[in-house]
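Internal tracking record. Fields below are filled automatically when a chain is submitted to the structure queue. Please do not edit lines marked as system-generated. If the sequence contains nonstandard residues, flag them in the REMARKS field before resubmitting.
Queue: standard
Priority: normal
Entity type: single polypeptide chain
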Amino acid sequence: MTTTNISGQTYFRARIDDLGRITVPKPLRDALGIVKGAILEIGSGITEDGRPCAVMCKHEARDNIQDQLAVLAHSIDELSTATNLPLAQVNDLRAQIAQIQKILTTPYEENE
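SYSTEM-GENERATED OUTPUT FOLLOWS
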């Protein structure tokens, strides 16, 4: 992976794997605040010199509960390593988040 700095912006070059995935480099994830489970918006565009390009933006998830839960879960993991929070409390918080995620992803079936 290589980096290029153009007009104060940093660009990364990454290779697509067999499944069509790319890895977002850690410096870029850190700079954008992208955590595990975050949603990215990816679209297509054309560069100034006419080349096709992919454009990636961090999805702002103010109204998306699933995204907020992913951020919360990541924050709990960071908090547990940075403090002396008891493991039992950390596991309880993780279990509660997992239960909420399960509820949100379970299809609603109306009782008749």
